[in-house]
Design the sequence.
């Protein structure tokens, strides 16, 4: 062991031999230090140090991210409205960094819309927070499901959820309001689809009795002004109308005139497209405020026929939903899910409907759409020919009083010529032919 220590001691340099080496090293460091300060300005030195510190601090504390997913795969729920809101919101955020974009021009939209394609992303800045939107699609059993992913630093989670998403919704509403006119909605499971409502009918041009028109307008005005009244008496703020009469008497035109008068959207519900009670509730639940719900030709669905006059075995085989479900949507708890609604039933055969459907509170006002009167014919002539008087009016009035003829059929005759003499002559010929057919039918019966 002693020999090993001696050998190890031999390889350790002596202190006297290290002193010259240390002096040389210290001198070199001083020279390098002086050269560094001469060559590197103080500001550049501070900048470089800050960059080094930033780099190493990011390496040590890399931020973590959270992701919100907006998709349409919620079990038992209808379409996620945030998808449509996001599509519209992002249409104004797409910029030059997006190399491929979707474009389209749709009914009801004044401008061309842009949209993301699968796999594209957009970075949005909200109050200094960077939020990345990623759009994608996935294959489902019933088709493709589009979805968005929103990624952001997790420390902003509450702010993104409570403030940013509210900002997105408010921006969507403001953008939508700029372009929004009246809309016509149709139900195609599982959602409503709309186009721009462009029906020009107004109360001024309806070929119907003046007193009846005035009564309808007064009823609508009273409905609009009674929000507090409905609340005070504990009833949903809605109104029901039944329009009944033969085909061609102007039921659809009256609906359009009511929509234009109230400035309400129109939701047309085809009962034949309703597959079950739950489908009916879904459709009614997703109708917005300030809307007219129209169920045309309700007599065509056997489920709403008078149960005291209908063979239950026949009725049950044809209906897709129960009468009780329809009544609940109109006048039950489901009816309280939205306000400012007008519900309109149209029918050619009022007598076949179940009385439970027609009572006040469900159908509050029954409006008979009758055959054309002389007063109604004057409105038609004014609309189509722009005249108030004509020598043929007296003969036409006499024929109309003895005839059951619809406004639609007379309007068709008036459209045959812009010349008043020719057009009214066609009306006279039409009415005389109808009179001949009527007398012939009477003779055959006798």
Sequence:
């Amino acid at each position: 062991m002693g020999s090993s220590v001696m050998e190890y001691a031999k390889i350790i340099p002596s202190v006297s031999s290290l002193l010259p080496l240390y002096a040389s090293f210290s001198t070199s460091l001083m020279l390098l230090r002086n050269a560094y300060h001469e060559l590197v300005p103080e500001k550049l030195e501070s900048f470089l140090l800050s960059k080094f510190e930033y780099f190493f601090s990011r390496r040590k504390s890399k931020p973590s991210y959270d992701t919100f997913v907006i998709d349409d795969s919620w079990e038992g729920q209808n379409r996620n409205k945030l998808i449509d809101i996001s599509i519209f919101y992002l249409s104004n955020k797409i910029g030059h960094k997006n190399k491929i974009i979707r474009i389209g021009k749709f009914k009801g939209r004044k401008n061309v819309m842009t949209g993301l394609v699968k796999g594209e992303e957009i970075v949005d800045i909200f109050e200094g927070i960077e939020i990345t939107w990623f759009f994608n699609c996935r294959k489902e059993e019933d088709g493709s499901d589009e979805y968005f992913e929103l990624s952001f630093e997790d420390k902003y989670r509450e702010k993104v959820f409570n403030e940013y998403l509210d900002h997105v919704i408010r921006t969507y509403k403001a953008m939508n309001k700029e372009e929004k006119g009246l809309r016509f909605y149709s139900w195609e499971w599982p959602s409503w689809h709309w186009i721009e409502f462009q029906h020009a009918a107004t109360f001024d041009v309806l070929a119907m009795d003046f007193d009846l028109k005035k009564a309808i307008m007064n009823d609508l005005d009273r409905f609009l002004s009674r929000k507090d009244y409905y609340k005070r008496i504990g009833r949903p703020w809605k109104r029901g109308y039944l329009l009944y009469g033969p085909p061609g008497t102007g039921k659809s035109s009256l609906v359009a005139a009511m929509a234009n008068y109230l400035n309400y959207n129109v939701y047309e519900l085809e009962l034949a497209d309703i597959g079950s009670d739950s489908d009916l509730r879904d459709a009614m639940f997703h109708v917005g405020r300030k809307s007219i719900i129209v169920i045309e030709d309700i007599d065509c669905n056997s489920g709403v026929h008078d149960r005291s006059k209908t063979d239950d075995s026949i009725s049950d085989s044809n209906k897709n939903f129960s009468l009780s479900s329809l009544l609940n949507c109109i006048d039950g708890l489901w009816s309280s899910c939205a306000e400012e609604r007008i519900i309109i039933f149209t029918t050619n055969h009022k007598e076949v409907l179940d009385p439970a459907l027609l009572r006040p509170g469900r159908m509050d006002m029954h409006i008979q759409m009758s055959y054309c009167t002389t007063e109604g014919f004057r409105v038609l002539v004014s609309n189509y020919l722009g005249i108030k008087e004509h020598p043929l009016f007296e003969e036409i009035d006499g024929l109309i009083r003895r005839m059951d003829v619809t406004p639609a059929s007379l309007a068709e005759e008036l459209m045959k010529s812009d010349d008043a003499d020719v057009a009214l002559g066609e009306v006279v010929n039409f009415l005389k032919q109808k009179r001949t057919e009527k007398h012939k039918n009477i003779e055959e019966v006798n």
